[in-house]
Amino acid sequence: MSLAITLLTISIISNDTFKKFKLDPLKVLNVQQLREADAYTILHEPVTAIDLMERAAQQCARWLLNRNISEKQISIFCGKGGNGGDGLAIARLLTAKGINLSVYILETGAAGTPEFQTNLDRLRTLPVSTYIIESDAQLPDIRKDALLIDALYGFGLTRPLEGLSAALVNHLNDSGAEIIAIDLPSGLFADRSSTGNTIVKASYTLSFECYKLGLLVAENAPFIGAVHILPIQLHPQFLESVQTGFQIIDKAVIKTLFKRRNRFAHKGTFGHALIIGGSYGKIGAVVLATTSCLRSGAGLVTSYLPKCGYEILQATAPEAMTLTDTCEKMLTQVPDNFDPFSAIGIGPGMGTATETANMLQVLLQQCKKPMVLDADALNLLSKQQTVLSQLFQNTILTPHPKEFERLFGTSRTEFDRIKLALQKASELNVVLVLKGHHTLVALPGGNAFFNINGNAGMAKGGSGDVLTGIITALLAQGYEAAHAAMIGVYIHGRAGDIAAGLLSQEAMTAQDLSTYIGKVFLELND
């Protein structure tokens, strides 16, 4: 059993959870479940395997034709399995639309699948140049302006490529031509680490019906390019009933969790959030967290920071109340009274001074309010492992990969890190928000959700502070920790996409994320 299959079967989201919240998440299936989905569809629709393959090929051909590829020199590289059968069907469909192309079949000595052979027979009725690659000497010349379609190996791959297969993949990569992978880039495992493998470096990956785990991890970013999930009408009954450990956060899921405002509500209805952080030279982090907290619906917001930040906070966030530590440049004491506050976000710009570490330890011992721990709060916790094990249940931790490493140790691969995040969320009874391009929300019960919006323009200082403010505001309004984390990462990523669309990824700042939170709420209220 592969690592990722093990991860996916660690625990499952209960049917009661789906009934209670009417969730219909996009599920991430492992290799065995993908095979079962195909088999179930073939049996219960019913549909033949070759016709199911034709659906996949039609979706890919439609996508390709929409990209105006008629002027390109197109070569389709096919293995002799299901992925190769897809490639042959795509070649036939494109040729029928007047596209000139060549097909190259990798000969490995193994017999082709029945579907592969059927599609090869169909292709032979058309004027398509077809070549067999049996040795390195038969690797074709490829122009840099060519378009290559990789249909060599799909999700069924079980071992790293070697020999002629690896040589062909290296040849494609070295050509400098644009590559579009069908299902998965050849050489990439669907649900376990591919570190060290020879893998096609695709500009686009056209996959089917649902995400594979391998398409969601950063270590595969150099190979997968932009991912497009194409529907092929797998049987809905199977997709509804199959139990998985990983799901996708999308707008539909968030709208089922999102609470619309009662028009008779008042500011006390939406809680009182406390943002704790800041140190000399890093007051901006508290400003960002406070501003995003205000824009995310909290009825009242108070910021607690060193004295040096008082005027800055009052000037930049006039809607927030301000409390200060007795120390000028760092946090050394806890606030006098936690009773007024519904939820607390702590860590942005806080620093790691010994006095601040002592303050954090006292706070965690005295305060049992819903809480978000971020940034320097996590760095200090990494040095206080006994305190880490005593966190209040459902506390939310929001580490980026380096902070996660400081807390829980190094991981050899990102798949190992995901497994460790699931383990620690359950072991500590906390919600872990592992930040990244596809942020992972790991829940205490062993379930995990990937957020797939957001963009590289968010990879700038202060973005995490904005997320802390958003999640803290949601906690203050009474959302349970798991839902606050899920909604928070979605709002954060969507605000980033809006900012990038209006300003560019290069020019957008963390402050812009806060500015466009309102547009996300407009979408959720629509």
Which helices and strands appear, and what pairs or packs with what?
Blueprint (H helix, E strand, L loop, with lengths): L2 H6 L6 H7 L4 E2 L3 H14 L4 H17 L8 E5 L3 H15 L4 E6 L7 H10 L5 E5 L13 E5 L11 H12 L3 E5 L21 E5 L12 H4 L1 E5 L5 H6 L4 E4 L1 H7 L14 E5 L6 H13 L4 E6 L4 H7 L4 E4 L18 E4 L7 H13 L4 E3 L2 H6 L3 H4 L7 E2 L3 H8 L5 H15 L2 E4 L5 E3 L5 E4 L11 H14 L4 H23 L6 H6 L1 H9 L1
Overview of this structure, please?
The protein is of the alpha/beta class and 526 residues long. The protein folds into 2 domains: 30-243, Rossmann fold (3-Layer(aba) Sandwich); 252-525, UDP-N-acetylmuramoyl-L-alanine:D-glutamate ligase (3-Layer(aba) Sandwich), CATH 3.40.1190. The chain has helices at 3-8, 15-21, 31-44, 49-65, 82-96, 114-123, 163-174, 221-224, 236-241, 251-257, 283-295, 310-316, 354-366, 376-381, 385-388, 401-408, 414-428, 463-476, 481-503, 510-515, 517-525, and strands spanning 26-27, 74-78, 101-106, 129-133, 147-151, 178-182, 204-208, 226-230, 246-249, 272-276, 300-305, 321-324, 343-346, 371-373, 396-397, 431-434, 440-442, 448-451. The strands form 2 sheets. An 11-stranded mixed sheet has the order 1-9-18-17-16-15-14-13-10-11-12. A 7-stranded parallel sheet has the order 4-3-2-5-6-7-8, sandwiched between helices. Strand 17 and strand 18 form a beta hairpin. The model is unreliable at 1-25 (pLDDT under 50).
